């Protein structure tokens, strides 16, 4: 039985975020990862544990008088 694992850059591409952000999630234990040698790998099933937030400030609600 073989298990597909994603590298940090591959996981970042799938999630649409930077490699640094994925590494921060791994470092903060928000995203489980396994270290093989000097590289970190992530199970694709675990990508659903983190949901990237929208960038920027939320828009102000327009109030009609």
Summarize the entry for a quick read:
This protein has 65 residues and is of the alpha+beta class.
Give an overview of the whole structure.
This protein has 65 residues and is α+β, with helices and mostly antiparallel strands. The protein contains two helices and three strands. The chain has helices at 8-15, 19-27; strands spanning 6-7, 34-36, 39-42. Helix 1 (8-15) crosses helix 2 (19-27).
Question: Which secondary structure elements does this structure contain, and how are they paired or packed?
Answer:
Blueprint: E1 6-7, H1 8-15, H2 19-27, E2 34-36, E3 39-42
Antiparallel strand pairs: 1-3, 2-3
Helix pairs in contact: 1-2
Largest sheet: 3 strands, antiparallel
* Number of separate helices: 2
Model regions low in confidence, pLDDT < 50 over at least 5 residues: none
Question: What is the residue-mean pLDDT, rounded to a whole number?
Answer: 87
DSSP helix fraction:
25-40%
Which class of secondary structure composition applies to the elements? alpha+beta
Distance between the termini: 64 Å
> In one word, what is the shape?
elongated
Rg, alpha carbons: 16 Å
For the largest beta sheet, what order do the strands appear in spatially?
1-3-2
What fraction strand?
Answer: 5-15%
Order of H and E elements: EHHEE
**Total beta-strand segments:** 3
């Amino acid at each position: 039985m073989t298990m597909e694992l994603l590298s940090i850059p591959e996981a970042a591409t799938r999630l649409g975020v930077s490699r640094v952000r994925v590494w921060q999630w791994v470092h903060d234990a928000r995203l489980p990862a396994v270290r093989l040698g000097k590289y970190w790998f992530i199970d694709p099933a675990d990508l659903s544990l983190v949901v990237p937030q929208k960038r920027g400030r939320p828009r102000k609600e327009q109030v009609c008088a």
